[in-house]
Amino acid sequence: MQSTTVLVVDDQPQFIAPIKRKLENEGFQVVTASNGAEALEVFATARPDVVSLDLLIPEIDGLTVCKLLRERSEVPILILSAKCEESDVVLGLEVGADDYLAKPFRLNEYLARIRALVRRPHLATPHRPVEKEELEVGRIRLSLSTHEVGVDGRPIALTPTEFRILSFLMKHPERVISRDMLLEAVWGYTGYDETLINTHVKRLRTKIERNPDRPEMLLTVRGFGYKLVPRAGEPANRAA
User: Fold this and answer.
1) How many whole angstroms separate alpha carbon 79 and alpha carbon 37?
2) How far are the Cα atoms of 1, 24, 50 from residue 27, in angstroms, in the given order?
3) What is the CA angle 44-203-94, rounded to 5?
4) Which end of the chain is flanked by fewer CB atoms within 10 Å, N or C?
5) Residues with Cβ within 8 Å of residue 42, at least 6 apart in sequence
6) Burial environment of residue 64 by CB neighbours within 10 A (0 to 12, 13 to 18, 19 or more)
7) Among 193, 126, 135, 194, which residue's Cα sits nearest to residue 163?
8) Long-range contact list for 192-199, CB < 8 A, 24+ apart?
9) Average pLDDT of the chain, as a whole number
């Protein structure tokens, strides 16, 4: 069985070494890069299954690397950052990263995040049948097989994480979904992460709502979570 490859991008050898050792001990194949330019080169040749990306790297910064990777691939991206760089983490999520982990962190937590990203479903593979179901809620149509999304008949581009959030909400229209439930369904672990979820939901609203500041469909239920509803007078359909 082919092992899962993780690209670890960081400019500090003393930081990469324990991560590399931990991942290899757990059966992962690890490739590394110490700057942004090298990261893009290694990505093109190694075609990793997951990217672990530090933001503060030389030559090409981590945010730019994240954006460039997302433009060419749906590979899961885990951003690493110090807590004082929360604004950069938000920017990273906005340009397409799937998850982030604040430094310093425990290796077991890092490993759990990597495993969760690996487990996330991708487009159909020879070992996984294609889902043919299409979902429709109000003005939104979504295809689980082609990953195409349209609002009012207009195609929109979503990141892999935005697609997973929207598809999960569309499978449960008008039902209040807690943040913990959403975190487990989309990211594969529990433990509410306010910045992670709020940033992705905010980005999703800019793409599906007429006025993201006054959402009509993706609503916040204070103290509970979120729910997706059709506009007033429109039925919610589980599948089309």
Assistant:
1) 17
2) 11, 5, 14
3) 35
4) N
5) 7, 31, 32, 33, 48
6) middle
7) 135
8) 195/86, 195/89, 195/90, 195/93, 195/100, 196/93, 196/99, 196/100, 199/90, 199/93, 199/94
9) 86
pLDDT for residue 176 = 94
- pLDDT for res 123: 36
Q: Binning pLDDT at 50, 70 and 90, where does residue 192 land?
A: low
Token output for 180: 């913990």
What residue has token string 């092992």? Answer: 3
pTM of the model as a whole: 0.77
As a whole-number percent, the residues of the chain with pLDDT over 90 amount to 59
Buried-state track 155-181, b at ≥16 Cβ within 10 A, e below 16 = ebebbbbbbbbbbebbbbbeeebebeb
For the chain, the farthest-separated pair of C-alpha atoms sits apart, in whole angstroms, at 59
Strand arrangement, sheet containing 77-82:
29-33, 5-9, 50-54, 77-82, 99-103
